[in-house]
Amino acid sequence: MAGPRRQSLPIFPQVRPGESVSRERPRTLALACSIVVVVFAAYAGALRCGYVFDDFWCIRRNDFIQDGRNLFRFFGEEYRSGKWPDSSRPLLVLSTMADAVLFGIDRPWAFHLQSLLWHAVASVLVFLVARRWTGAEGVGWVAGLFFAVHPIHVDAVAYISSREDPLCTAFYLLGLLCIDAFAQTGSRRWLAAVCVSCALALAAKEMAATFPAAALLWMLATGGEGGQPVSRRTLIAVLAATAALTGGYLAAKFYGLPNDGTRADFITGDRGVHYASAVRVLADYWRLLVWPARLSGDYPVVILKGFSDPACLRSAALLLALLAGAILAWRRSRPWGLALLWWFVTVGPVTQIVPIFIFQSERFMYLPSVGVCVMAAMALRALVARVPSRVWGSALTALFVMVAGSVALGRTWSHVRDYRDPIALWTSVLEVFPGSQRAHNDLGDACAKAGLLSDAEFEFRAAVRLGRDSEIGRMAMSNLAFVLVRNGREEEAVELRRILGDTDPGQIGAQALNDLGVWADRRGDAVEAESKFRASVARKPDFVLGWRNLGRVLDRVGRRGEARAAWERVLELAPGDGEAERELRKP
User: Fold this and answer.
1) Cα separation, 175 vs 158, whole angstroms
2) Which of 58, 166, 285, 392 is least surrounded, with the fewest CB atoms within 10 Å of its CB?
3) Looking at residue 9, what DSSP letter applies?
4) Does residue 435 sit within a domain?
5) What does DSSP assign to residue 76?
6) pLDDT classification of 264: cutoffs 50, 70, 90
7) pLDDT of residue 262
8) Cα–Cα dist 282/267, whole Å
9) DSSP letter, residue 356
10) Where does a domain end: 375, 394, 416?
């Protein structure tokens, strides 16, 4: 049987007729401002961070967001072609475009500032939602504070390209508050506000596809005016409108827009192994949410043997226990049931049921963590309620919030420093996962770009030692060859490239064959150079650089007709290529 109904709190305290300022509004504003102050205290270091991960592709080298006139090309044929990053997340693109146009691409602090502001907005909305969720303003404030400083959110806030998570969460929570207003007033304007919030959340990130399910739980758990059940009319109107929006968005994303890299294949090609490994990851998220001591900017994929693997069995037992607890809690106390079920509903898009490219990431927990933060605040209230003295209870609450908040704030502050630059990021990853081949390779790449060639060589060799048969291992070999060339050890680099040319069937092998051709051409061996360039384009027919070098060497030995064919292929693959156009204009 469901527990007793709580007295409903309005979204914002109402002002009585004849009163200029109510007693509640200044307190609500003060609590919201305190959350914003805590956010800036925890994340001030992010303003000194630069670009990491996909920031270089999505922002630093993204011509689309750097020209404000491209605003009028939004959703045009070129944009929908997938040429520009994040084509299926237009709200994210618009937000980064605003930073690039207003402040320029060389001021990453401006991009970080906007991400920080969106995290502050989301944290305040967690406060307002949790207040309505539990019927207690103090619980809502504590939940907002927990959300503001939880260390697992650093990946979504300090990494600019993950701004879609704070954006999506802010509009997601705003939509719930608009549902509450619609249930109380019946005004179609509030229903329209629900739809707009849902649409903006979807435009930020596809995780908002869970909004209709979360909205249903929200309406069943919080009720309408005075704690009464939401009317059937309200339920049907909200669910029909948001389900239609979500269905239209998913159809556009999967059938109208290009694959933006979010969809991937099953790991190892085995569905059983894939889903068993995903179960372990879902259980690991709970560990990170409850005890975020060992956080990392990148997580290597841990591949289990299958569903019989002990790690999978332990993880499945934990998840089933939590789900059973959520169902039981829903029957006894709707706020507790909603807190647990919230995680199961909102984590749906990253469960790997439909495989996505990133297998595990801290930022995936940004929206699901809302329920965990509310649950922690309610647990604190339940603990304090057992203290017989109200004074001692208040003191205990203040002490716990200060201690837990200080520890979380300190962990967040230190984790933010991991995102200063690529070298700091990948160094921090190796501190947590010293056997990560990708981390060694990417740290080597970051060191090479910074001119630290000895350090780069050390990291690339470490990555190769961890296995040269994997794609990352072959990539590390290719990167090591480039570093060896820059260090004047070309013979060693040639040997590595010969191995790659013989073993890698894709892009890396084609690049290695092309580099061998360049080396032969530099020694004056045009025959060997032509052979390697032809082998590179045979390995990868759309390899523009291989066709370009083939055209150059054929033109140099006087085989103009064959050279023209190579230049025509370059122009076919890269329309507007200046060198190819000049060569084809020659008689």
Assistant:
1) 25
2) 392
3) P
4) no
5) S
6) low
7) 56
8) 16
9) B
10) 416
Q: Which structure tokens are listed for 497?
A: 């490239």
Structure tokens given for 286: 């709970």
* Residue pLDDT, tens place only, 195-236: 999 999 999 999 999 999 999 999 999 876 656 788 899 999
Domain membership flag for residue 9? no
Quote the CA–CA distance of 488 and 493 in Å, as a whole number. Answer: 9
Please give the backbone phi and psi of residue 376, each rounded to the nearest 5 degrees, phi first. -65, -40
Q: Which CATH number does the domain housing residue 569 bear? A: 1.25.40.10
Q: Which domain holds residue 120?
A: 28-416
In one-letter notation, the amino acid at residue 260 is: D
pLDDT digits (tens, 9 = 90+) for 417-463: 999 999 999 999 999 999 999 999 999 999 999 999 999 999 999 99
Q: How many other CB atoms are there within 10 angstroms of residue 556's CB atom? A: 13
CA distances from 33 to 85, 134, 295, 478 (A): 35, 21, 28, 52
Single out the residue in 394, 416, 438 at which a domain terminates: 416
Structure tokens at 99: 């930073």
Same domain for 221 and 347, yes or no, is yes
pLDDT on residue 4: 40
Amino acid at 26: P
- Exposed/middle/buried for residue 464 (C-beta within 10 Å: 0-12, 13-18, 19+): buried
CA–CA dist 508, 539 (Å, integer): 10
In a shared domain, residues 383 and 249: yes
* Torsion sign across C-alpha atoms 524, 527, 532, 533: positive
DSSP string, 461-501: HHHHHT-SSSHHHHHHHHHHHHHHHHTT-HHHHHHHHHHHH
